[in-house]
Design brief:
The protein contains four helices and four strands. It has helices at residues 22-28, 66-76, 82-94, 105-112, and strands spanning 32-40, 44-49, 61-63, 96-103.
């Protein structure tokens, strides 16, 4: 049996119907929405919340550079708009802010602390 998308060979056991390989199935999953909030202390402290804005993810980051904030936002938002950049810049200017990220399953697992 082969993957319906990329035509790669699928491992057994085979089941009926159209199947996707692990890689193609992961690409078709919708991105995970996570909110990254940040505050300025002696460094930039970043915390992450689930989409419900109540459940914190265990991983926190301490960044020394504003450039790293932009880098994380760009990696987590494949379509960082001018408005997003301005909102991020405003948050930096006032010392606190946040941005929605759309993460792949792998990025999300890293924040959860479940690295493969």
């Amino acid at each position: 049996m082969i993957c319906a998308a990329c035509r790669a060979s699928l491992p057994e056991p085979h089941s009926r119907g159209e199947q996707l390989c692990v890689r193609c199935a992961a690409q078709r999953k919708p991105p995970r929405r996570v909110y990254m909030s940040f505050q300025s202390h002696s460094s930039w402290i970043c915390q992450f919340l689930e989409e419900d804005l109540r459940t914190p993810l265990p991983r926190k980051l301490s960044l020394l550079s504003i450039d790293r904030l932009f880098e994380i936002a760009e990696r987590g938002r494949r379509d960082l708009t001018t408005e997003d950049r301005q909102a991020l810049q405003h948050g930096i200017e006032i010392g606190r802010g946040g941005v929605w990220l759309e993460l792949t399953e792998e990025q999300y697992r890293k924040l959860k602390g479940n690295q493969p």
